[in-house]
Design a protein that fits this description.
By secondary structure, the protein is an alpha/beta fold. It is built from 19 helices and 16 strands. Strand 11 and strand 12 form a beta hairpin.
Length: 460
Protein backbone atom coordinates (compact mmCIF):
# COMPACT_ATOMS: atom_id res chain seq x y z
CA UNK A 1 0.00 0.00 0.00
CA UNK A 2 1.27 3.40 -0.90
CA UNK A 3 1.35 6.27 1.53
CA UNK A 4 1.42 10.06 1.14
CA UNK A 5 4.66 11.96 1.08
CA UNK A 6 6.40 12.89 4.33
CA UNK A 7 4.58 15.55 6.33
CA UNK A 8 7.65 17.82 6.21
CA UNK A 9 8.37 17.38 2.47
CA UNK A 10 7.56 20.06 -0.10
CA UNK A 11 3.98 19.55 -1.38
CA UNK A 12 3.76 17.61 -4.65
CA UNK A 13 1.32 19.20 -7.10
CA UNK A 14 0.01 17.57 -10.28
CA UNK A 15 -1.13 20.20 -12.82
CA UNK A 16 -3.56 18.90 -15.47
CA UNK A 17 -4.36 21.07 -18.51
CA UNK A 18 -4.56 20.68 -22.27
CA UNK A 19 -2.61 23.89 -23.01
CA UNK A 20 1.17 23.49 -23.05
CA UNK A 21 1.78 27.19 -22.33
CA UNK A 22 -0.26 27.07 -19.10
CA UNK A 23 1.52 23.88 -17.98
CA UNK A 24 4.94 25.45 -18.54
CA UNK A 25 4.14 28.72 -16.76
CA UNK A 26 2.54 26.97 -13.78
CA UNK A 27 5.49 24.58 -13.51
CA UNK A 28 7.89 27.53 -13.21
CA UNK A 29 5.64 29.40 -10.75
CA UNK A 30 5.12 26.45 -8.44
CA UNK A 31 8.79 25.52 -8.39
CA UNK A 32 9.70 29.11 -7.52
CA UNK A 33 7.19 29.10 -4.63
CA UNK A 34 8.57 25.91 -3.03
CA UNK A 35 6.23 23.28 -4.50
CA UNK A 36 7.25 20.16 -6.42
CA UNK A 37 5.33 20.41 -9.72
CA UNK A 38 4.36 17.64 -12.13
CA UNK A 39 2.33 18.14 -15.30
CA UNK A 40 -0.05 16.12 -17.43
CA UNK A 41 -1.24 17.13 -20.89
CA UNK A 42 -4.97 16.51 -20.76
CA UNK A 43 -7.29 14.63 -18.40
CA UNK A 44 -6.44 11.16 -19.71
CA UNK A 45 -2.75 11.57 -18.97
CA UNK A 46 -3.58 13.17 -15.63
CA UNK A 47 -5.58 10.12 -14.55
CA UNK A 48 -2.80 7.83 -15.75
CA UNK A 49 -0.20 9.73 -13.69
CA UNK A 50 -2.21 9.76 -10.44
CA UNK A 51 -1.21 6.26 -9.20
CA UNK A 52 2.39 6.80 -10.33
CA UNK A 53 2.90 10.20 -8.65
CA UNK A 54 0.43 10.09 -5.73
CA UNK A 55 0.51 13.90 -5.47
CA UNK A 56 -0.46 15.86 -2.37
CA UNK A 57 -2.59 18.28 -4.45
CA UNK A 58 -4.18 18.17 -7.91
CA UNK A 59 -4.71 21.37 -9.92
CA UNK A 60 -6.86 20.59 -12.95
CA UNK A 61 -8.67 22.44 -15.73
CA UNK A 62 -12.38 21.67 -16.00
CA UNK A 63 -12.84 21.66 -19.78
CA UNK A 64 -10.41 19.47 -21.73
CA UNK A 65 -11.04 17.76 -25.09
CA UNK A 66 -10.23 14.20 -24.05
CA UNK A 67 -11.31 13.77 -20.41
CA UNK A 68 -12.80 16.56 -18.31
CA UNK A 69 -11.63 17.79 -14.92
CA UNK A 70 -14.69 16.30 -13.24
CA UNK A 71 -13.46 12.82 -14.13
CA UNK A 72 -9.96 13.71 -12.86
CA UNK A 73 -11.56 14.87 -9.59
CA UNK A 74 -13.50 11.62 -9.29
CA UNK A 75 -10.44 9.42 -9.86
CA UNK A 76 -8.27 11.46 -7.48
CA UNK A 77 -10.88 11.24 -4.71
CA UNK A 78 -11.35 7.54 -5.39
CA UNK A 79 -7.62 6.95 -4.96
CA UNK A 80 -7.29 9.19 -1.89
CA UNK A 81 -10.36 10.85 -0.29
CA UNK A 82 -8.10 13.34 1.53
CA UNK A 83 -6.39 14.63 -1.65
CA UNK A 84 -7.31 18.32 -2.27
CA UNK A 85 -8.35 18.94 -5.89
CA UNK A 86 -8.49 22.53 -7.19
CA UNK A 87 -10.58 23.09 -10.32
CA UNK A 88 -9.70 25.79 -12.89
CA UNK A 89 -12.06 27.10 -15.57
CA UNK A 90 -12.57 30.13 -17.78
CA UNK A 91 -16.34 29.60 -17.80
CA UNK A 92 -17.22 29.59 -14.13
CA UNK A 93 -20.80 29.83 -12.96
CA UNK A 94 -22.24 29.64 -9.45
CA UNK A 95 -23.98 26.39 -10.37
CA UNK A 96 -20.84 24.73 -11.74
CA UNK A 97 -18.82 25.89 -8.71
CA UNK A 98 -21.38 24.45 -6.29
CA UNK A 99 -21.49 21.19 -8.21
CA UNK A 100 -17.68 20.84 -8.12
CA UNK A 101 -17.56 21.52 -4.38
CA UNK A 102 -20.38 19.06 -3.75
CA UNK A 103 -18.39 16.43 -5.66
CA UNK A 104 -15.42 17.00 -3.37
CA UNK A 105 -13.36 19.78 -4.98
CA UNK A 106 -11.28 21.80 -2.52
CA UNK A 107 -11.63 25.05 -4.49
CA UNK A 108 -13.10 26.35 -7.75
CA UNK A 109 -10.80 28.91 -9.38
CA UNK A 110 -11.82 31.11 -12.31
CA UNK A 111 -9.34 31.88 -15.13
CA UNK A 112 -7.57 34.19 -15.50
CA UNK A 113 -6.33 34.32 -11.92
CA UNK A 114 -3.50 36.15 -10.19
CA UNK A 115 -0.41 34.17 -9.29
CA UNK A 116 -0.56 35.23 -5.64
CA UNK A 117 -4.22 34.12 -5.48
CA UNK A 118 -3.31 30.65 -6.78
CA UNK A 119 -0.32 30.30 -4.42
CA UNK A 120 -2.50 31.27 -1.42
CA UNK A 121 -5.06 28.62 -2.34
CA UNK A 122 -2.36 25.99 -2.89
CA UNK A 123 -0.82 26.72 0.51
CA UNK A 124 -4.20 26.40 2.17
CA UNK A 125 -4.69 23.09 0.36
CA UNK A 126 -1.24 21.90 1.48
CA UNK A 127 -2.01 22.80 5.10
CA UNK A 128 -5.36 21.04 4.83
CA UNK A 129 -3.61 17.97 3.43
CA UNK A 130 -1.01 18.02 6.19
CA UNK A 131 -3.63 18.28 8.95
CA UNK A 132 -5.70 15.43 7.50
CA UNK A 133 -2.59 13.25 7.18
CA UNK A 134 -1.46 14.05 10.74
CA UNK A 135 -4.94 13.18 11.98
CA UNK A 136 -4.89 9.85 10.14
CA UNK A 137 -1.42 9.01 11.47
CA UNK A 138 -2.49 9.92 15.01
CA UNK A 139 -5.59 7.71 14.81
CA UNK A 140 -3.52 4.78 13.52
CA UNK A 141 -0.99 5.28 16.33
CA UNK A 142 -3.76 5.33 18.95
CA UNK A 143 -5.17 2.10 17.49
CA UNK A 144 -1.72 0.50 17.50
CA UNK A 145 -1.14 1.45 21.14
CA UNK A 146 -4.56 0.15 22.17
CA UNK A 147 -3.92 -3.16 20.42
CA UNK A 148 -0.35 -3.26 21.70
CA UNK A 149 -1.41 -2.96 25.35
CA UNK A 150 -4.51 -5.14 25.19
CA UNK A 151 -3.51 -7.87 22.73
CA UNK A 152 0.25 -8.25 23.02
CA UNK A 153 1.20 -11.93 22.97
CA UNK A 154 2.26 -13.04 26.45
CA UNK A 155 5.90 -13.42 27.41
CA UNK A 156 8.84 -11.60 28.96
CA UNK A 157 11.78 -13.79 27.99
CA UNK A 158 14.48 -12.16 25.90
CA UNK A 159 13.88 -14.44 22.91
CA UNK A 160 10.11 -13.77 22.96
CA UNK A 161 10.52 -10.01 23.33
CA UNK A 162 12.82 -10.08 20.29
CA UNK A 163 10.05 -11.83 18.31
CA UNK A 164 7.50 -9.21 19.37
CA UNK A 165 9.85 -6.35 18.52
CA UNK A 166 10.42 -7.75 15.02
CA UNK A 167 6.67 -8.28 14.54
CA UNK A 168 5.95 -4.70 15.63
CA UNK A 169 8.63 -3.39 13.27
CA UNK A 170 7.31 -5.16 10.16
CA UNK A 171 3.59 -4.76 10.95
CA UNK A 172 3.16 -1.24 9.43
CA UNK A 173 4.73 -2.40 6.14
CA UNK A 174 3.13 -4.54 3.46
CA UNK A 175 6.05 -6.98 3.32
CA UNK A 176 5.41 -10.71 3.13
CA UNK A 177 6.40 -12.46 6.37
CA UNK A 178 7.40 -16.11 6.85
CA UNK A 179 6.83 -17.30 10.43
CA UNK A 180 8.70 -20.45 11.39
CA UNK A 181 8.77 -22.58 14.50
CA UNK A 182 7.71 -25.90 15.96
CA UNK A 183 4.05 -26.88 16.06
CA UNK A 184 2.19 -25.11 18.86
CA UNK A 185 4.61 -22.20 19.34
CA UNK A 186 1.99 -19.58 18.40
CA UNK A 187 2.59 -18.84 14.74
CA UNK A 188 -1.01 -17.80 14.08
CA UNK A 189 -0.97 -15.67 17.24
CA UNK A 190 1.98 -13.71 15.85
CA UNK A 191 0.34 -13.47 12.41
CA UNK A 192 -2.81 -11.97 13.97
CA UNK A 193 -0.64 -9.61 16.03
CA UNK A 194 1.09 -8.34 12.88
CA UNK A 195 -2.31 -7.85 11.22
CA UNK A 196 -3.73 -5.99 14.24
CA UNK A 197 -0.84 -3.53 14.20
CA UNK A 198 -1.00 -2.94 10.43
CA UNK A 199 -2.89 -0.40 8.36
CA UNK A 200 -5.08 -3.32 7.22
CA UNK A 201 -6.36 -4.01 10.74
CA UNK A 202 -9.86 -2.73 9.96
CA UNK A 203 -10.18 -5.31 7.17
CA UNK A 204 -10.37 -9.12 7.21
CA UNK A 205 -7.82 -11.52 8.64
CA UNK A 206 -8.39 -14.86 6.91
CA UNK A 207 -6.39 -18.03 7.39
CA UNK A 208 -6.21 -21.55 6.00
CA UNK A 209 -4.23 -24.62 6.99
CA UNK A 210 -2.66 -25.74 3.73
CA UNK A 211 -2.20 -29.28 5.01
CA UNK A 212 -5.84 -29.77 6.00
CA UNK A 213 -7.31 -30.07 2.48
CA UNK A 214 -6.52 -32.18 -0.60
CA UNK A 215 -4.95 -30.30 -3.51
CA UNK A 216 -8.15 -29.90 -5.57
CA UNK A 217 -10.13 -28.46 -2.69
CA UNK A 218 -7.24 -26.30 -1.49
CA UNK A 219 -6.86 -24.57 -4.86
CA UNK A 220 -10.59 -23.94 -5.04
CA UNK A 221 -10.53 -22.44 -1.52
CA UNK A 222 -7.50 -20.29 -2.27
CA UNK A 223 -8.28 -19.05 -5.76
CA UNK A 224 -12.01 -19.68 -6.21
CA UNK A 225 -13.68 -21.46 -9.12
CA UNK A 226 -16.18 -20.88 -11.88
CA UNK A 227 -19.42 -22.76 -12.38
CA UNK A 228 -18.94 -26.14 -14.04
CA UNK A 229 -15.15 -26.23 -13.58
CA UNK A 230 -15.44 -29.56 -11.74
CA UNK A 231 -18.09 -31.91 -10.39
CA UNK A 232 -20.03 -30.10 -7.70
CA UNK A 233 -19.13 -26.59 -8.87
CA UNK A 234 -22.74 -25.51 -9.29
CA UNK A 235 -21.99 -21.79 -9.12
CA UNK A 236 -19.09 -19.35 -9.20
CA UNK A 237 -17.19 -19.05 -5.92
CA UNK A 238 -14.72 -16.37 -4.85
CA UNK A 239 -11.54 -17.70 -3.27
CA UNK A 240 -10.03 -16.67 0.05
CA UNK A 241 -7.48 -14.40 -1.64
CA UNK A 242 -10.36 -12.38 -3.10
CA UNK A 243 -12.25 -12.47 0.21
CA UNK A 244 -9.19 -11.08 2.00
CA UNK A 245 -9.16 -7.99 -0.26
CA UNK A 246 -7.51 -5.05 1.55
CA UNK A 247 -6.85 -7.33 4.52
CA UNK A 248 -4.41 -10.09 5.47
CA UNK A 249 -4.30 -13.71 4.32
CA UNK A 250 -2.44 -16.20 6.52
CA UNK A 251 -1.22 -19.43 4.88
CA UNK A 252 -0.50 -21.85 7.72
CA UNK A 253 1.70 -24.89 7.09
CA UNK A 254 2.62 -23.71 3.62
CA UNK A 255 5.27 -26.42 3.47
CA UNK A 256 2.44 -28.94 2.95
CA UNK A 257 1.44 -27.53 -0.46
CA UNK A 258 1.97 -29.45 -3.72
CA UNK A 259 4.11 -28.32 -6.65
CA UNK A 260 1.02 -27.24 -8.63
CA UNK A 261 -0.31 -25.08 -5.80
CA UNK A 262 3.14 -23.57 -5.23
CA UNK A 263 3.26 -22.37 -8.86
CA UNK A 264 -0.08 -20.61 -8.42
CA UNK A 265 0.94 -19.08 -5.10
CA UNK A 266 4.07 -17.74 -6.76
CA UNK A 267 1.88 -15.99 -9.35
CA UNK A 268 -0.13 -14.33 -6.58
CA UNK A 269 3.01 -12.99 -4.91
CA UNK A 270 4.66 -11.88 -8.15
CA UNK A 271 1.72 -10.42 -10.07
CA UNK A 272 -0.87 -9.84 -7.34
CA UNK A 273 -3.54 -11.71 -9.27
CA UNK A 274 -5.31 -15.08 -9.19
CA UNK A 275 -6.96 -17.24 -11.83
CA UNK A 276 -9.96 -19.12 -10.39
CA UNK A 277 -10.14 -22.84 -11.16
CA UNK A 278 -11.70 -23.22 -14.62
CA UNK A 279 -11.38 -19.50 -15.47
CA UNK A 280 -9.33 -17.94 -18.26
CA UNK A 281 -9.04 -14.37 -16.98
CA UNK A 282 -6.98 -13.25 -14.00
CA UNK A 283 -8.42 -11.26 -11.10
CA UNK A 284 -6.32 -8.70 -9.25
CA UNK A 285 -5.99 -9.11 -5.47
CA UNK A 286 -4.79 -6.76 -2.74
CA UNK A 287 -4.13 -8.88 0.33
CA UNK A 288 -1.03 -8.97 2.48
CA UNK A 289 0.36 -12.50 2.67
CA UNK A 290 1.71 -14.01 5.87
CA UNK A 291 2.84 -17.64 5.83
CA UNK A 292 3.95 -20.16 8.43
CA UNK A 293 5.58 -23.56 8.56
CA UNK A 294 7.07 -25.97 11.07
CA UNK A 295 9.28 -27.45 8.34
CA UNK A 296 12.79 -26.44 7.33
CA UNK A 297 11.92 -25.11 3.88
CA UNK A 298 15.56 -24.85 2.83
CA UNK A 299 15.90 -28.58 3.44
CA UNK A 300 12.65 -29.14 1.53
CA UNK A 301 14.15 -27.19 -1.40
CA UNK A 302 17.17 -29.52 -1.39
CA UNK A 303 14.81 -32.51 -1.48
CA UNK A 304 12.94 -30.95 -4.40
CA UNK A 305 9.59 -30.74 -2.56
CA UNK A 306 9.46 -26.94 -2.27
CA UNK A 307 10.16 -24.29 -4.89
CA UNK A 308 13.16 -22.06 -4.22
CA UNK A 309 11.59 -19.07 -6.01
CA UNK A 310 8.47 -19.30 -3.85
CA UNK A 311 10.59 -19.56 -0.71
CA UNK A 312 12.47 -16.37 -1.57
CA UNK A 313 9.17 -14.58 -2.27
CA UNK A 314 7.81 -15.68 1.09
CA UNK A 315 10.98 -15.17 3.09
CA UNK A 316 11.12 -11.36 2.72
CA UNK A 317 10.93 -11.05 6.51
CA UNK A 318 11.64 -14.15 8.61
CA UNK A 319 10.25 -14.45 12.14
CA UNK A 320 11.34 -17.55 14.06
CA UNK A 321 9.44 -18.52 17.21
CA UNK A 322 11.43 -20.24 19.97
CA UNK A 323 10.00 -23.44 21.49
CA UNK A 324 8.50 -23.13 24.96
CA UNK A 325 11.32 -25.18 26.52
CA UNK A 326 13.70 -22.36 25.55
CA UNK A 327 11.59 -19.69 27.27
CA UNK A 328 10.49 -21.51 30.40
CA UNK A 329 10.40 -18.23 32.35
CA UNK A 330 7.26 -17.36 30.34
CA UNK A 331 5.36 -20.39 31.67
CA UNK A 332 4.03 -18.72 34.87
CA UNK A 333 2.68 -15.80 32.80
CA UNK A 334 1.05 -18.17 30.32
CA UNK A 335 -0.45 -20.24 33.12
CA UNK A 336 -2.03 -17.17 34.72
CA UNK A 337 -3.40 -15.99 31.36
CA UNK A 338 -4.87 -19.37 30.40
CA UNK A 339 -6.48 -19.87 33.82
CA UNK A 340 -7.99 -16.37 33.71
CA UNK A 341 -9.37 -16.99 30.21
CA UNK A 342 -10.82 -20.35 31.26
CA UNK A 343 -12.54 -18.76 34.25
CA UNK A 344 -14.04 -16.03 32.09
CA UNK A 345 -15.32 -18.56 29.56
CA UNK A 346 -16.87 -20.72 32.28
CA UNK A 347 -18.06 -17.76 34.34
CA UNK A 348 -16.30 -19.28 37.36
CA UNK A 349 -13.79 -18.13 39.95
CA UNK A 350 -10.27 -18.18 38.59
CA UNK A 351 -8.27 -21.21 39.72
CA UNK A 352 -4.59 -21.16 40.65
CA UNK A 353 -1.81 -23.77 40.77
CA UNK A 354 0.17 -24.78 43.83
CA UNK A 355 3.95 -24.76 44.02
CA UNK A 356 4.42 -28.43 43.16
CA UNK A 357 2.16 -28.06 40.13
CA UNK A 358 4.13 -25.06 38.90
CA UNK A 359 7.39 -26.98 39.47
CA UNK A 360 6.06 -29.80 37.30
CA UNK A 361 4.99 -27.35 34.59
CA UNK A 362 8.40 -25.68 34.64
CA UNK A 363 10.32 -28.96 34.54
CA UNK A 364 8.44 -30.51 31.62
CA UNK A 365 9.94 -30.04 28.14
CA UNK A 366 6.62 -29.30 26.32
CA UNK A 367 7.18 -30.94 22.92
CA UNK A 368 3.76 -29.57 21.89
CA UNK A 369 4.77 -26.10 23.12
CA UNK A 370 2.21 -23.47 24.15
CA UNK A 371 -0.71 -25.38 22.64
CA UNK A 372 0.14 -28.44 24.76
CA UNK A 373 0.44 -26.26 27.87
CA UNK A 374 -2.99 -24.74 27.26
CA UNK A 375 -4.58 -28.17 26.70
CA UNK A 376 -2.94 -29.55 29.87
CA UNK A 377 -4.30 -26.65 31.91
CA UNK A 378 -7.78 -27.03 30.43
CA UNK A 379 -7.75 -30.68 31.52
CA UNK A 380 -6.51 -29.71 34.99
CA UNK A 381 -9.27 -27.09 35.41
CA UNK A 382 -11.95 -29.67 34.54
CA UNK A 383 -10.53 -32.44 36.77
CA UNK A 384 -9.69 -30.26 39.78
CA UNK A 385 -12.61 -29.81 42.19
CA UNK A 386 -10.67 -27.31 44.32
CA UNK A 387 -9.78 -23.72 43.52
CA UNK A 388 -6.08 -24.65 43.79
CA UNK A 389 -4.95 -27.10 41.10
CA UNK A 390 -2.61 -29.80 42.37
CA UNK A 391 -0.07 -31.71 40.31
CA UNK A 392 -2.14 -34.90 40.12
CA UNK A 393 -4.67 -33.03 37.94
CA UNK A 394 -2.03 -32.66 35.23
CA UNK A 395 -1.51 -35.26 32.48
CA UNK A 396 0.74 -38.10 33.61
CA UNK A 397 3.34 -37.31 30.97
CA UNK A 398 3.86 -33.88 32.58
CA UNK A 399 4.35 -35.17 36.13
CA UNK A 400 6.10 -38.49 35.38
CA UNK A 401 9.25 -36.99 33.91
CA UNK A 402 11.28 -35.17 36.50
CA UNK A 403 14.52 -33.40 35.76
CA UNK A 404 17.48 -35.31 37.18
CA UNK A 405 20.65 -33.53 38.32
CA UNK A 406 23.13 -33.51 35.48
CA UNK A 407 26.12 -33.87 37.78
CA UNK A 408 26.69 -36.60 40.32
CA UNK A 409 26.52 -35.85 44.05
CA UNK A 410 29.79 -37.74 44.44
CA UNK A 411 32.58 -35.46 43.24
CA UNK A 412 35.83 -37.11 42.25
CA UNK A 413 38.96 -36.19 44.21
CA UNK A 414 40.45 -34.75 41.04
CA UNK A 415 37.44 -33.65 38.95
CA UNK A 416 37.89 -33.15 35.23
CA UNK A 417 37.42 -29.73 33.61
CA UNK A 418 34.18 -31.01 32.11
CA UNK A 419 32.81 -31.93 35.56
CA UNK A 420 33.82 -28.54 36.98
CA UNK A 421 32.15 -26.73 34.07
CA UNK A 422 28.96 -28.74 34.49
CA UNK A 423 28.91 -28.11 38.23
CA UNK A 424 29.47 -24.38 37.76
CA UNK A 425 26.69 -24.15 35.16
CA UNK A 426 24.32 -25.98 37.53
CA UNK A 427 25.26 -23.62 40.37
CA UNK A 428 24.59 -20.55 38.19
CA UNK A 429 21.28 -21.99 36.96
CA UNK A 430 20.22 -22.69 40.54
CA UNK A 431 21.10 -19.15 41.60
CA UNK A 432 19.14 -17.77 38.65
CA UNK A 433 16.09 -19.94 39.47
CA UNK A 434 16.51 -21.94 36.29
CA UNK A 435 16.36 -18.86 34.03
CA UNK A 436 18.61 -19.87 31.15
CA UNK A 437 18.78 -16.40 29.60
CA UNK A 438 19.99 -14.77 32.82
CA UNK A 439 22.29 -17.73 33.47
CA UNK A 440 23.89 -17.28 30.06
CA UNK A 441 24.45 -13.59 30.81
CA UNK A 442 26.04 -14.49 34.15
CA UNK A 443 28.26 -17.09 32.48
CA UNK A 444 29.25 -14.61 29.76
CA UNK A 445 28.15 -16.85 26.92
CA UNK A 446 25.44 -16.70 24.28
CA UNK A 447 22.16 -18.43 25.25
CA UNK A 448 22.52 -20.75 22.25
CA UNK A 449 25.91 -21.89 23.61
CA UNK A 450 24.34 -22.66 26.98
CA UNK A 451 21.57 -24.66 25.32
CA UNK A 452 24.15 -26.67 23.36
CA UNK A 453 26.05 -27.47 26.56
CA UNK A 454 22.84 -28.49 28.33
CA UNK A 455 21.90 -30.69 25.37
CA UNK A 456 25.29 -32.36 25.63
CA UNK A 457 24.59 -33.00 29.31
CA UNK A 458 21.14 -34.37 28.43
CA UNK A 459 19.28 -31.44 29.96
CA UNK A 460 18.17 -29.38 26.91
Amino acid sequence: MNSPASLDAAPRVLVVDDETGILDSLRILLKTEGFVPFTAHGGKQGIERLPELRPDIVLTDVRMPDVGGGHVLSKAREMDPDMPVIMMTAQATLQSAMQAVNEGAFYYLQKPFRNDELITILRRAAEHRKLRTENTVLKQEIKRRERNTSGRPIGRSKSWLEVLHLAETVAPTDSTVLITGESGTGKEVIARYIHDLSSRADHSFLSINCGALPESLLESELFGHVKGSFTGAVKDKAGLFAAAQSGTFFLDEIGETTASTQVKLLRVLQQREVIPVGATEAQSVDARVLAATNRDLEEEIKRGSFRADLFYRLNVIAVHLPPLRQRAEDIPLLVDAFLARSAAQRNEECKTVDESTMDALMAYQWPGNVRELENALERAVILSADIVIEADALPERVTARRAEPFITTRIAATPTLDVIERAYIQWVLTNESGNKTRAADMLGIDPSTLYRKLARYGEA
